Amino acid sequence: MIDKQLTPPGYIVIEGPIGVGKTSLVNRLAESFGCGTLLEGAEENPFLERFYTDGRAAAFPTQLFFLFQRSQQLQDLRQADMFRSTLVADFMLEKDRLFAQANLDDAEMDLYEKVYGHLTMEAPIPDLVVYLQAPVETLMQRIQKRARLQEKQLDAGYLQKLSDAYTEFFYRYDQSPLLIVNATEINPVDRDEDYQLLLERICTVHSGKHYFNPAPVLV
């Protein structure tokens, strides 16, 4: 339950590598704030399963589908003027480029950059970005636990590459307030005490870069 004295940011983005718990946290925050969500919709990508089994062959159509999908979602929101109230998303458009750099060859990346440059100009700037971090071992455990069929081919090397890309990106990120959360030990989705700690911090960050490294609440 949210304290009535706490005011959430208007547009919150939860980011981080595969398996860190973005979407689950988004859904819980939306319930607390009584607001809408903006979700990736990875299950709608017809190339994704093929990518996880034959990444080199399916990388380019997979990335282009995600890029067009995310760009359209954000454009629809702008046209509907839904940013007047709180909204929580599990992706930011800029992260699409991180995946492209990890998966595309030079020629594909050159074409991708040209498309990306035309689609990202109208991307809204978040009022707060929450970056969830966790080591690859933890990510692999969480991915295995949720047992999504399309993710069963994911390996630790690929996750490490993505995690490194996220770390580099957010080291330089300064477009909006940023809260970097060590999500290794805490479980804000299933443990109310952990969630309340994170919820309070989300509602009190208004500028700059902040680090949140809480010890798990023992019950």
UniProtKB/TrEMBL annotation:
Residues 12-202 form the Deoxynucleoside kinase domain. Keywords: ATP-binding, Kinase, Nucleotide-binding, Transferase. GO terms for molecular function: ATP binding; deoxynucleoside kinase activity. It holds the Pfam family dNK. One of its GO terms (cellular component) is cytoplasm. InterPro entries: DCK/DGK (IPR002624), Deoxyribonucleoside_kinase (IPR050566), DNK_dom (IPR031314), P-loop_NTPase (IPR027417). The keyword Lipid biosynthesis does not apply. CDD domains: dNK. ATP binds at G16, P17, I18, G19, V20, G21, K22, T23, S24, R142, I143, Q144, K145, R146. The keyword Kinase applies. Gene3D superfamilies: P-loop containing nucleotide triphosphate hydrolases (3.40.50.300). It comes from the Bacteria. This is Deoxynucleoside kinase. The active site is at D90.
